[in-house]
Amino acid sequence: MPSRLTVLSGPSGVGKGTVVARIREAYPHIWVSVSCTTRPPRPGERDGVEYRFVTREEFARMVEAGELLEYAEFAGNLYGTPRQPVLDHLAAGTPALLEIELQGARQVRAALPDAYLVFLAPPSWAELERRLIGRGTESAEVIEQRLARARVEMAAEPEFDAVVVNDDVGHAAAQLVGLIEAVCR
Ligand code: 5GP
Predict the structure, then answer these.
(1) Which residues are registered as beta bridge partners of 9?
(2) What is the 101 CA–ligand 1 centroid distance (Å)?
(3) Which ligand 1 atom sits closest to the C-alpha of 80?
(4) Which protein residue's CA is at the shortest distance from atom 1 of ligand 1?
(5) Residue 76: left if φ>0, alpha if ψ -120 to 50, beta else—which one?
(6) Whose CA is nearest to atom 3 of ligand 1?
(7) Is residue 180 within 8 Å of 95, Cβ to Cβ?
(8) Whether the CB of 104 sits within 6 Å of ligand 1
């Protein structure tokens, strides 16, 4: 039986990457898509594991060739989901998960109406604000832009099929896996 695609999205700063890293490590029966990105690797990131790191030229070629299920620009870099591995895993009946930002989640909804969209929410607006401000040493202007974007992203919650609150990474990962298993049954 073919499986159903789950998409995890939510505001930046909510901890999507951390929840998905926990799923990769603790729930290996769930296949997690490896996105392509033009962003340079961060320390510790391995090509082909967290991301496939590509040039802008290679990314443009993939878009042109229709190889991406969805893609978006985020903070000056391009990110996209290779289509074929997703379709192959779904056809084989493997539960499959994407972790992408909001514009990408909307494109998946349009391309695969059966996809199950999960919104990762912060425990509260104050907590998200704390995480976005506490990240570094950016100017007040950069922080204000980030908060404005987060407010818009938070307003998208009603577009989703389910909400998981990221109060604790282990708890959120377990809850997401429970939802994935329920919809793939
Ligand atoms: P980061 O650079 O911090 O790893 O990711 C930045 C943002 O890009 C995060 O919100 C992450 O969810 C999103 N992202 C990662 N891969 C993809 C992708 O393939 N498509 C889209 N649309 N967003 C992605």
Answers:
(1) 119
(2) 5
(3) 19
(4) 17
(5) left
(6) 17
(7) yes
(8) yes
Q: With beta carbons less than 8 A apart as the criterion, state whether 1 and 110 touch.
A: no
Give the architecture-level CATH label for domain 5-183: 3-Layer(aba) Sandwich (3.40)
How many angstroms separate the first and last alpha carbons of the chain? Answer: 9
CA of 100 to the centre of ligand 1 (A): 5
- Give the pLDDT of residue 134: 78
What is the number of residues in the chain? Answer: 185
Rounded to an integer, what distance in angstroms lies between the CA atom of residue 157 and that of residue 14? 13
Which of 16, 20, 35, 36 has most ligand 1 atoms within 8 Å of its beta carbon, as the pocket-test mutant?
35
99 within ligand 1 shell (Cβ under 6 A):
yes
pLDDT in tens for each of the 185 residues of the chain? 889 999 999 998 999 999 999 999 999 999 999 999 999 999 999 999 999 999 999 999 999 999 999 999 998 999 999 999 999 999 999 999 999 999 999 999 999 999 999 999 999 999 999 998 875 677 888 889 889 999 999 999 999 999 999 999 999 999 999 999 999 87
